[in-house]
Design goal:
The protein is of the alpha+beta class. It has 19 helices and 10 strands. The strands form 4 sheets. Strands 5-7-9-8 form a 4-stranded antiparallel β-sheet.
Length: 477
């Protein structure tokens, strides 16, 4: 899937507005090229495959910035003065319904959902093999579920759009569903996707959603609802496919994409095709100039002293995960795991963004086991991560101590990957953790705002409510 060499254009229908997308790249040529009315398109298998490719392509801008919502608000990450304009509100917990970052994220999530819905609504029209048809259906449902998982974690209950929107008036008929209803749809999509998707791919299809990815995401979805029994069952199945975990320093870096620790990743491609990532531009400390990479960074997603000090002595993940750059009195603990020196230009990073890793799943499995009273088995899973990281195995812990240890391990293993803020929220301790962080550590970009329970959800963007007054605002905004 990293081999992409044909330029195409597609159509996407956004929730609450009708819009065309920019050009994307595909595995197959789309004929004819250009903007094509939906009612005269999707008559061949190539058309369906191209629409699905559009859905995958639309993930790139999302995950170029998803760390801003899943990592920056937490005790793991911060911005510096030079990036105040971009992500200061996430860093300081001062976002409002007028946030352009939230508006952009909302629109991008629904654009991907629109692509998936187009595939699902039209996939039965063209002639094709049953295996191919099922594959397209499974991939579209996985991508739709992934987007709704992002939406429900960020905003709570949101409009459930499950079919192609063909008019602006139709878009205004949607109300917010409950978070429970959204999660139920996610579970349905992932269960159905897992039943028809292959466990792996070959050639240029490597990187597409697999049955393992669908089950891994389903297990994670269960964990975010505290459905520990269901989570244990499905995560046990996924964990059993992991084999031996790769050493941490072999998981990240140029040329290591789609390795065996990766279950699903957003595929980026450098080389001037407009499909590269912006990680170097975003994460590299600005004062470093071109000493770390060939581009000057913006100092986003930079680690905190709190995170840096949380690594245990001897943990071999530290040098891979965090780079240290000093500029006068400032110390930048930047996200080294996503940076390589030879990136050619601001938006030309070639390395992928991991959405689901086996290490993530192993730790979720350990957590589910522990919450189900199987602490000894949980520690067995936890120790797969610890011993691979050159740390001593844990044994004889109480359930409460194991819970603390597993949570700590998730913080370290997944740092900078957009998981920490959502983990704190699902554990119900984000207020306590962030109050302590605010008290004990002064962020480089100034003091963070008040840490209040309503921050567990982001506000519905103002523009969406203006366009569709049926939408209600989240409490506290």
């Amino acid at each position: 899937m990293k081999t992409k060499n044909i330029i195409i254009c597609g159509i996407s229908m956004l929730i609450l507005s009708v819009a065309t997308t920019s050009c994307k790249k595909s595995f197959v040529e789309l004929t004819p090229k250009g903007i094509i009315p939906v009612n005269t398109f999707y008559n061949t298998e190539i058309d369906i495959r191209s629409a699905l490719t559009g859905a995958y392509s639309s993930l790139r801008p999302i995950y170029n910035e998803q760390y801003g919502f899943g990592e920056l608000p937490s005790d793991n990450s911060q911005t510096y003065g030079e990036s105040e304009v971009l992500y200061g509100e996430q860093d300081k917990l001062t976002w409002t319904p007028a946030s352009t970052n939230l508006q952009s994220a909302w629109g991008r999530f629904y654009a991907t959902i629109a692509y998936a819905n187009i595939v699902l609504d039209h996939v039965n029209t063209p002639p094709m093999s049953a295996a191919n048809r099922n594959g397209y259906i499974g991939q579209a449902k996985f991508l739709r579920a992934l987007m709704y998982f992002n939406l429900v974690r960020m905003f709570g209950g949101v409009p459930l759009v499950l079919n192609e929107i063909t008019s602006e008036a139709q878009a205004y008929t949607y109300n917010r569903e409950t978070a429970t209803a959204v999660y139920a749809q996610i579970e349905k999509d992932l269960t159905e996707a897992a039943a028809v998707l292959p466990a792996s791919y070959t050639g240029t299809d490597i990187g597409r959603a697999t049955s393992i990815a669908a089950n891994a995401l389903l297990g994670k979805v269960y964990m975010f609802q505290n459905k520990f029994q269901q989570a244990e069952s499905i995560l046990a199945t996924v964990s059993a496919t992991a084999g031996t975990l790769l050493p941490y320093d072999q998981v990240f870096g140029l040329g290591r994409d789609n390795n065996r620790d990766i279950i699903f990743a957003v595929q980026y491609l450098g080389g001037g095709f407009g499909e590269g990532n912006t990680f170097a531009r975003s994460f590299v400390p600005q004062p470093s100039g071109t000493t770390i990479t060939a581009v000057t960074g913006n100092s986003n997603n930079s680690g905190t002293l709190d995170l840096f000090g949380s690594f245990e002595t001897g943990d071999n993940r530290l040098n891979t995960a965090i780079g240290v750059y000093r500029s006068g009195t400032l110390v930048y603990y930047y996200a080294k795991k996503f940076i390589y020196q030879s990136v050619a230009a601001n938006s030309e990073g070639d390395n992928d963004w991991p959405v689901l890793r086996y290490a993530d799943i192993v730790l979720l499995y350990a957590e589910a086991l522990n919450e189900n009273g199987k602490t000894d088995q949980a520690l067995t899973q936890l120790n797969l991560i610890r011993t691979r990281s050159n740390l001593d195995a844990k044994s004889g812990l109480s359930q409460a101590d194991a819970r603390t240890t597993i949570r700590h391990e998730r913080r370290i293993e997944l740092c900078f990957e957009g998981e920490r803020w959502f983990d704190l929220i699902r554990w119900g301790n984000f207020v306590q953790v962030m109050q302590a962080h605010k008290t004990n550590f002064v962020p480089a970009n100034g003091l963070i705002g008040n840490v209040t329970p309503n921050l567990a959800l982001y506000p519905i963007p103002t523009r969406e409510i203006q366009l569709n007054p049926r939408l209600t605002q989240n409490p506290g905004y």
